[in-house]
Amino acid sequence: xxxxKLLRHELALPLLLTALLxxxxxxxxxxxxxxxxxxxAVAWEMRLGGEYLVPHLNGDLYWQKPPLLFWxxxxxxxxxxxxxxxxxxxxxxxxxxxxxxxxxxxxxxGATRESARNAAWLLAGAIYFALxxxxxxxxxxxxxxxLLALLGVCDLVDARYGRGILVAxxxxxxxxxxxxxxxxxxxxxxxxxxxxxxxxxxxxxxxRYFGMLAVAILLGAAIALAWAIPAAIHGGExxxxxxxxxxxxxxxxxxxGTSAHRRPxxxxxxxxxxxxxxxxxxxxxxxxxMRALLSAVPLRFALAWLLPTFIVFSLVSGKQPHYLxxxxxxxxxxxAIGLEAQALRLRTGLLGVVLVxxxxxxxxxxxxxxxxxxxxxxxxxxxxxxxVIAGLGVGLLSARSRITQPLAPAxxxxxxxxxxxxxxxxxxxxxxxxTPMARQIAALQARGETVAHVGRHxxxxxxxxxxxxxxxTFETLHEFExxxxxxxxxxxATFYRRFRFRAPPLFTQPFRGxxxxxxxxxxxxxxxxxxxISHSGDEADENADD
Length: 546
Prior knowledge:
Blueprint: H1 3-8, H2 12-28, H3 35-49, E1 56-57, E2 60-61, H4 68-80, H5 84-108, H6 113-124, H7 127-132, H8 139-157, H9 161-179, H10 182-192, H11 194-197, H12 206-253, H13 267-275, H14 279-282, E3 283-285, H15 287-292, H16 297-315, H17 328-340, E4 344-346, H18 349-364, H19 372-378, H20 383-399, H21 407-426, H22 435-446, E5 451-454, H23 462-465, E6 473-474, H24 477-486, E7 491-494, E8 507-511, E9 514-520, H25 521-527, H26 538-543
Parallel strand pairs: 5-6, 5-7
Antiparallel strand pairs: 1-2, 3-4, 7-9, 8-9
Helix pairs in contact: 2-5, 2-21, 3-4, 5-6, 5-8, 6-17, 6-21, 8-9, 8-10, 9-12, 10-16, 16-17, 18-20, 20-21
C-alpha cells in the first residue's frame, strides 16, 4: 500500500490521533508506582545481571509474570538506551496494533469496512483502554495476542488450516509468555463455540476444525514450554512450583496479594461498565433490532467471546479491573455492528454534561473540604486543566445533534485521558517520582554503604536509581531491629508511616500521599519509632501486587 493510499485508509485517522494523544505522556510522566516501577525494575535487573531466562526483582526470583514483556523492554533498550520512555513507547505500539487487529478481525467476520472502522474507534475511545495505551503493563500486549489468536481461529473456521495453526499457535504461545495460561481462557470460549457462531462455515468440518484447533494449542504450548522448562530447571524447585502451579491457582483462589484481590461475584458487573465509558453513557439501543442481528456472524462471535469469558472471570475469586481489558474489543465489535444496523445510536449530550461536571470539580478541587492527602495533591494542580476539560464537554454539547459516529466521543475520551495525565505531570507528578530518593540510595551503595528498607518496597527504587545491588527488606520492625543491632552504621529507608523514626531524616521527599525518608540506622534506633504517626494507607502498599 502506497503512503498516499495509507493516508486515505479508514484506519489512518484512528491510528494517527491515538498515537498523537498517547505520546506526550510517554516522555513527560515518570513511571508510576507501584506497577510500572516494579516492571521496569525486573527488566533492569534482567539487563544488569544478564539473566534473561528467569526474571528477578530485588535479587529474588520473580515468578509472578512470564518474561516476554521484560524481553521486549530490553530489546527496546538495545536500540534506544535504557530509558523509561522506551517501555511506554512500546505500549503505544501495542495499543496501535490492537486497533489494526480489531479492524482486521471485524472484517474477517464478514462485517463492512464501516463497522471495522467504528470498532477501532470504539476500542480507542474506551476510557480504560485509553488510559492503559501508554502504561507499562501486560494487558495491552496480551490483547494483541488474543486478537491475533482469534484471527487464527477464523482461519481455521475458513479451512485455512496451515495459516490458522501457525497464527493461532504462535499467538497462544506468546500470550502465555506475556501473562500465563489466562491466554487460553481469553480465547477459549470463542474457539470452542465456533460451531454456533460459524455453523454454515463449519458444515461437515467440525471434527477437523477441532483437531486443527488442538494442534494450534499444542504449538502454543510448545512455544511456552520452550521457555518454561529450561526456566524451571534453572530457577529450582521453588520457581518450578510457582510458574506451573502458584501463578495460576493463587489468582483463581484470590490468594495473591491477600484481600486486595479477593472480590465478590458481582464485582465485575460494576467495574466493567466503568471501564467501557463513555459508551455506556452515549449508546442507546433497540433490543428488538439487536435481537434480529443475532444471526449475524460478527455479533454471534463477539457474544460467544465476551459472555462466557466474563462469567468465568466473575467466578474466579481474584479480580482486578485490568484482567478484563482484553474483552473490550469484543464489546467494540458488538456496538459497531449495532450502530451500522441502526439498532444502536449515539447520544453524546450526557457525556458532555459529565465532562463539564468533572472539569468544574477538577478546577475547584483545591478549594474543597477533603482530607489532608487529597488537599496535598490538589494544591499542586492548576485549575486550567479542569477548565479545558469543561470546555471539551461544552464542545460536545454544542455539536451533539450532529454526532452520529463514534469518532467524536472517542476523541473526547482520548483528549480527556491525555489532559488527566498531563495534569498529574504538572501537579502531583513529583509525588510519584521516586528518583531523588533512589539516587541517594545509589550514591550510598556506590560508596560501599549498606542500605536496607523497612516494609516491602516493590522495586520502586531499582530502576529509578539504576541500583546495582539488592535493597534488603524487613517486613516487621522486629526483624529490622535484630539486623540493626549488627549494622548500626548502615542506612535505612522507608515510605511506610508505621515505620517512621522520630529522628530527623538525612533525606526525605514526598512520595504519593506520604514521604519516603532515609536515616542512619544508629540515629533511627536511638530515637525510636514515632508512635503518633498514622498507620492508615500502609496496608494498601504492603499488599499491593500484580
